[in-house]
Specification:
This protein has about 550 residues and is of the alpha+beta class. The chain is elongated, with a radius of gyration of 36 Å. Keywords: SH3 domain, Signal.
Length: about 550
């Protein structure tokens, strides 16, 4: 390949640009010095002369420079212009610049009725995308009317078609034309709506949606599919049943139909309630030797003799009345000096949440911390109040329960154990990231602008993979602060996967991050990166959290 010197080519292109600008500016600059109208007309015609503008083309410019070839710089410029690569480049430029790329609309049909003053003749050129409009038939007249205009679609961009317009051609034939030029008649509606500025409303989708599987949608092709967690820009809520939305992660300008919040809630309410989670969830206590909290779990034998486990508002079913559809969100970035978001880990027993918390604490003990739980049991000789536990009397514990001061609490062998709201505030006040693990139905009580919880679901791999990775691991059931461990059983693996599936089904709309703990090191790295992002980058949170 021929290598061209960069400096002469840059100088040459600069000369061409200057010449263009000079030709464009000369008429206005000379105008104040022209007194007679005929002189002004002469100058105007001269500067519009094509022969003058052709001076900047390669061949005429080369001919003009031939007579001055004694100059060294001109010789270099002539040599550059004579190279075939430069000639081809500029020739292509001239050819492309002279082309007209505007779409050519077909001529109007000869059989148009000129007396139809109220009829609009619409001519559109569209590609393979849909027209971007849905239609309906008037129940009384049978007329075919425009029902809605999809924001960003061909019809919307044209500005010629409005809701309520009546189509005067055979509608099936028009819609069958998937691309190219389309000409058709419209009877304008009684009132044409003024252009509406798109509202800046963003919703986080809390469910999966496929328009192709929705029997209720008026036009499947006009629908917008999405997955749980998608951020949707709601551009129209005019229709109480079908909103128009764009996916923020997609570059496509056309909006699509999605079920409205109210409509989707009604549909969800008609479905069967989700199966309740089994009573294998756990509560929490603390082991002082490592300075981190471990889960307080009841074995199957324990569950026969202990009625109470950790509770939240008295019942695991407290949360099941929620109908996950959409949640309005806004962008958020933590400002320097602001409190960190609370980090909440959720997962089934044995999945490894405590191991991940331990690794976080070891990796940066000045940055991460955990809460100190409360208990009503007597303090032991080697224990210090406020270190292993906050030790309080049983009647005070019960009073705090009545005042909803605990996120979770439970009773074991006649003693209460619990995690209080104030214990979280105490960690956050020290400008540290507070780490807790709780039952999933407790999440909703922390979803406030004060805590801004970042909920991470720690998910087990398949049963087959659990057999391989947990072969020599210990299953910690735990009673009080005495650790007890045993090897995992096949029943443990089956139960872990089953509970995880039920958690994700019932509470998955509250999870902001899902990490499969197949390998502890890889899971820790993924968790650490996610926490760095929420501390330093812009992300989406419920809009109410940004108003505090």
């Amino acid at each position: 390949m021929l290598s061209l010197p960069l400096l002469p080519l840059g100088i040459f292109l600069f000369y061409l640009l200057c010449l263009y600008e000079l030709l464009a500016a000369l008429p206005s600059q000379l105008q104040p010095h022209v007194s007679r109208p005929e002189d002004s007309s002469f100058l105007h015609d001269m500067f519009r002369e094509r022969s003058l503008h052709s001076l900047i083309k390669v061949t005429p410019l080369s001919d003009e420079l031939q007579g001055q070839s004694s100059n060294g710089e001109i010789k270099e410029l002539l040599a550059l212009l004579s190279r075939p690569h430069v000639k081809s480049l500029l020739s292509v430029h001239d050819t492309v610049a002279q082309q007209n790329y505007d779409p050519e609309l077909p001529p109007l049909p000869e059989d148009l009725d000129d007396d139809e003053d109220s009829v609009k003749i619409i001519r559109l050129v569209k590609n393979k995308e849909p027209l971007g409009a849905t239609i309906r038939q008037d129940d009384h007249t049978g007329a075919i009317l425009i029902a809605r205009i999809m924001r960003g679609g061909a019809a919307d961009r044209s500005g010629l078609i409005h809701v309520g317009d009546e189509l005067k051609e055979e509608i099936i034939r028009i819609l069958a034309q998937s691309q190219g030029a389309i000409t058709f008649k419209l009877v304008p509606g009684a009132k044409e709506e003024a252009p509406i500025k798109e509202p800046k409303v963003f919703m986080k989708a809390l469910f999966d949606y496929s328009p192709m599987e929705d029997k209720a949608i008026p036009c499947k092709e006009a629908g917008l599919g999405f997955k749980k967690g998608a951020i949707l820009h709601i551009v129209s809520q005019d229709d109480a049943t079908w909103w128009q939305a764009k996916d923020e992660e997609e570059a496509h300008p056309r909006a699509g139909l999605i079920p409205s919040k109210q409509f989707q809630e009604r549909r969800f309410a008609l479905r069967q309630p989700v199966a309740t989670l089994p009573s294998t969830f756990r509560s929490s206590t603390r082991r002082s030797s490592f300075g981190f909290r471990r889960s307080f779990r009841l074995s199957r034998r324990d569950k026969k003799t202990n009625k109470s486990m950790y509770e939240c508002k008295k019942s695991e079913l407290y949360d099941t009345a929620d109908v996950p559809t959409y949640e309005e969100v806004a962008q958020y970035r933590r400002h320097s000096g602001a409190r960190h978001r609370l980090v909440v880990l959720v997962g089934p027993t044995g999945v490894g949440m405590n191991a991940l918390k331990r690794k976080l604490l070891i990796s940066d003990p000045q940055h991460f911390s955990v809460t100190i739980p409360h208990t009503s049991r007597p303090k032991k000789n080697q224990e210090t109040d406020g270190v292993e536990y906050h030790f309080i009397a049983k009647h005070l514990f019960e009073t705090d329960i009545q005042h909803n001061k605990f996120i979770e609490y439970g009773e074991f062998k006649g003693n209460y154990y619990g995690t209080s709201m104030d214990s979280i505030r105490s960690v956050m006040a020290k400008s540290k990231v507070c780490l807790i693990d709780i039952q999933p139905h407790s999440i909703k009580h922390l979803r406030t602008s004060e805590f801004k919880p970042f909920v991470v679901f720690i998910k087990p791999p398949s049963v087959e993979r659990l057999r391989e990775t947990r072969k020599h691991a210990k299953f910690i059931s735990g009673k009080d602060d005495k650790a007890s461990g045993r090897t995992f059983t096949e029943e443990d693996f089956q139960e872990m996967v089953q509970v995880a599936q039920q958690m994700e089904t019932q509470y998955g709309h509250l999870f902001e991050k899902v990490i499969v703990n197949d390998d502890l090191s890889a899971a820790f790295s993924e968790l650490r990166q996610a926490l760095k992002r929420i501390e330093n980058e812009v992300h989406w949170v419920p809009i109410s959290w940004t108003h505090s």
